[in-house]
């Protein structure tokens, strides 16, 4: 019998937060953690990549959308548990606020779906959201509003 070995340390990953015309870009995840839930496009940072490069690469791979990275603004935890309750992996998701440049979302890579969701109805949109999605989206919208005033 082989025992599954889990990483000893958290895994650094980025999430790309893109807001356009009052809507936020989300994907329905195909893989753990949070398979089947809606969250921001994102994934693990590759060796030699900056946070912004990783966020933009993952955004393009998962949605086909092009953007420019504006700033890193928060980080959240994501936990992936095995069926027996043991912690398989812990991710530290570093949020990068991005400005949409072009493209309409089409699910790719490890996304089942990709679409724009109205920010005002996000919390009550009857979507299975990953933890912290509504809060991170609200924080990003606040940063954009402050920058425009």
Q: Quick one: biggest sheet? A: 7 strands, mixed
Quote the average pLDDT: 93
Structural class: alpha+beta
CATH domain fold name: Nucleoside Triphosphate Pyrophosphohydrolase
CATH domain class name = Alpha Beta
Shape: globular
User: Helix-strand pattern, N to C?
Assistant: EEEEHEEEH
Strand portion, in percent?
35-45%
Number of domains: 1
Radius of gyration: 15 Å
Give the name of the CATH superfamily: Nucleoside Triphosphate Pyrophosphohydrolase
Low-confidence stretches: none
Name the descriptors.
single chain, 149 residues, alpha+beta, Nucleoside Triphosphate Pyrophosphohydrolase, 7-stranded mixed beta sheet, 2 helices
What does this structure look like?
The structure is a single chain. The chain has 149 residues and is an alpha+beta fold. The protein has a single domain, classed as Nucleoside Triphosphate Pyrophosphohydrolase (Alpha-Beta Complex). Helices cover 19% and strands 42% of the residues. It has two helices and seven strands; from the N terminus they run ββββαβββα. The longest helix has 16 residues, at 133-148. The chain is globular. The model has no long low-confidence stretch (mean pLDDT 93).
